[in-house]
Amino acid sequence: xxxxxxxxxxxxxxxxxxxxxxxxxxxxxxxxxxxxxxxxxxxxxxxxxxxxxxxxxxxxxxxxxxxxxxxxxxxxxxxxxxxxxxxxxxxxxxxxxxxxxxxxxxxxxxxxxxxxxxxxxxxxxxxxxxxxxxxxxxxxxxxxxxxxxxxxxxxxxxxxxxxxxxxxxxxxxxxxxxxxxxxxxxxxxxxxxxxxxxxxxxxxxxxxxxxxxxxxxxxxxxxxxxxxxxxxxxxxxxxxxxxxxxxxxxxxxxxxxxxxxxxxxxxxxxxxxxxxxxxxxxxxxxxxxxxxxxxxxxxxxxxxxxxxxxxxxxxxxxxxxxxxxxxxxxxxxxxxxxxxxxxxxxxxxxxxxxxxxxxxxxxxxxxxxxxxxxxxxxxxxxxxxxxxxxxxxxxxxxxxxxxxxxxxxxxxxxxxxxxxxxxxxxxxxxxxxxxxxxxxxxxxxxxxxxxxxxxxxxxxxxxxxxxxxxxxxxxx
Length: 476
Description:
single chain; Rossmann fold
């Protein structure tokens, strides 16, 4: 089982990507522990250093105190180091340890770490976060925070039990947009909201069978990449990003983007568990791969003085030929291109500005409101209404320092105060994972959900997907 790599291995990976890093130091002194001072730098280990891990997690960790990089693909260490040299001028890359297996990393330097920053494929979110929390360490995890409903629930419970700071990486939750949305809706700007349409242009799915087996790329530790999921040989359309397409590793377009786009509806409308979820239209997809496009309908019960609400999720690709889609056939579903709610197409003509390819419409009995992806541009429609309606007071605390800054501030304080902590984020993640159950069930098969019992009451065969199995050696 792989752990910290040798100097020779690191140099080889460095050369492959043209890094100017000469080698890797093996020792380091004691870190400044979080909570010792309000200005203490947090000791961070980053797990998953390519993609979002390289562009966002590593630089933010390095502005604290980067202790370790863990990635199953060795070239990502050198890429990460080179990126840090360009973005963070005072980072000491020669003091950073590297690992391919986070279990080994925790064994060796777990006591030194204050926090982990996790940007792996989704099937590796749960285990390192749980290990960290059990060790009393803070955990920042990319969205969705878990790969299944039960994982999200367990992570939320663990964050409370171990009293550790946590954060899910849906950065819009730290922004101004969703706060303004909540404040407008709570002030009654559009009245009682009974319908929400969320849409996304991602196409994280597929068709056809599993591609042929290929040799494992140089520097890739395939056993560690597979981790807790069922073993398969390496093939194309998995690494570095296409894992989103596969049930065993990702959560499709829904998992990739709904934690950003549906966040406003969950927050502003105080949603928790739906009573049912149903796939109304699906195009593409297989038993192993998510749909290329779909429309899901969530039914949520009344909450206090808020009425029942239907939340629609539209994503991905429409069929190119009329009738290709499974489910009811509509003009907007049969013209090719992106799935768009008819209401969005209607408002494109009269909103007064172009609605983005990822966004949400909130339909109330007194009007309509729009937000772009991440909560951007909260706007009453038509735009003239924004000038007419009194601007509500700012009743929700604002975040300083961005999403990572919010997390690291919580770590320094030693309190679970980050705005998208696991208790908050688990609700949104469970809703996402329930949509995946509806995709698996197929068109027209309503998934009736008992949230308190955490089970599907009418299609018991789906309950095996509420908690995914783990391979031996990859459990907590």
